Amino acid sequence: MAQRSKSLSRGEWPWTSRATREIRLESQMESQVAPIFTHNQCEPIVARLHQQKYGKAFEEKQVVCRAKGKKGEGFLAVIFPRKAGEPEPVIEPWADGAGAKIAWRGETRFVLLDSVEREVNADRIKAQAGALVCKTVGGKVASLTLMAGGSAEATSAKAVVAQLLPGLK
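Below the sequence we write its predicted structure tokens.
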């Protein structure tokens, strides 16, 4: 029998986000290597284009961390890439901790990812699903997607998946 993921309040989330180049590793996170590393490996055509455009060799900095989980429990990590100087998104738990609400620049995405199908009735979204994404722009539904079957309704948008795609069982 599948087990539901643990619901966490915002204060219990094992991570936080700060400035673009900063990462805070809290009690649930551990770093096996230096959290920031640089490499210069890419396809030759990309290297040439980068050299032409910027006048220097390609170099990429990456931030790495490992999330330490608990046996039998899952977690949802939100990674939100953005350019330096852009505002941070507002990320908060959604659907009793099985999902996340991500608001940024007039758009909001509601993401549900659970190990079992669940009932959701939050933020004008009603669903019976295990995985969904609903995008709103200016408060109006722009898209509603079910990735693993189920049914969902968000204001005037509806989605029903009667048959799963091959491999999504």
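Residues 25-75 form one domain.
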